[in-house]
Amino acid sequence: MRLRWFAVLSGLAALTLAIALPARGATRPRYGGTLRVEVRASIETADPPQSGRGMADLAGAFTIMRWEAGRLAVYAADENAAGGRPYLDTIEIQMARPLREQAIDLEVGKADVVEVGTNDVRRPGAGRKTWTSAPVRVLALVFSPSVTDARVREALALAVDRTAIHNVLLQGQGEISGGLLPQWISGYAFLFPAAADLNKARGLTAGLPAPDRTLSLGVDDATLRPIADRVALNARDAGLAVSVGARNGSAEVRLVEARIETEQPERALAALAALLGLGDLPPANSLEGLFAAESALLQGFRVIPLFHLPDTYGAGSRVRGGAGVTPLGAWRFGDLWVEGNRP
Hints:
single chain, alpha/beta, Dipeptide-binding Protein, domain 3, 2 domains, 9 helices, 28% helix, 23% strand, elongated
């Protein structure tokens, strides 16, 4: 009998111990360590920025400790942060790092968090995690005032094969769109046409003299050059001659990227209109009014929205704590920690 009770008590003790102790391999937050981050941007201001994305978004949980404009920023954990002290001791941010060098540094363990280019999204690598925001980057073609013939602008809008670009060059990232606001913010983006129609495009350009059918396309970001080249190829099928070059103030049309910084539809649309040079947003006091206002901005094809893309980051195997970006693409590093710093 005593042996039986001893066995029962031993079993209960073992069960209690199993519940109390974490499962083998589970990770628990650890204080300490440095998170090494690399970005393409190069902020040249004498002082670190106090608003906007990226480094400024660390202000709630970290304080700036070192600033080398255009090269390096180091943040230290704020012991008195409102949400509690972050697990990390410091965050080191290397600026002006090309995407290819970022990918190599993540692979060899020199970086913990890097930006991910469109060609690398489908190749996460061993132990690597991918963080993705909502589609917050608007990719669009914007005409200069010198292109006065609306037929030319509409022909280019109808010529672009968004589906092919999305499937091949963007590897399925983000969303095809004919609207400025993404579907997740407006709820009506699907109402704007985004399909190619080469027959209609050719009809618009037929009979136009060659000079009127010739356009220069400037690219603001070199990483967007493959998309610009494909746009030029599509344009040729519609009877347009488009030459692609680097960013140029005299370009007749530019391939640009604009960011959405808020989830409030009217504010987001007003900001995009200002960034893209479309003027003030017409009054919009309802969802129907917002749709009408956006439709008015798109009339005349001064701007041709193409895609809404997310921010994508790669995180190394030693990074713990969940996704490090918000839906709007802001960094959320306060709850992250890194393994291998303390026993």
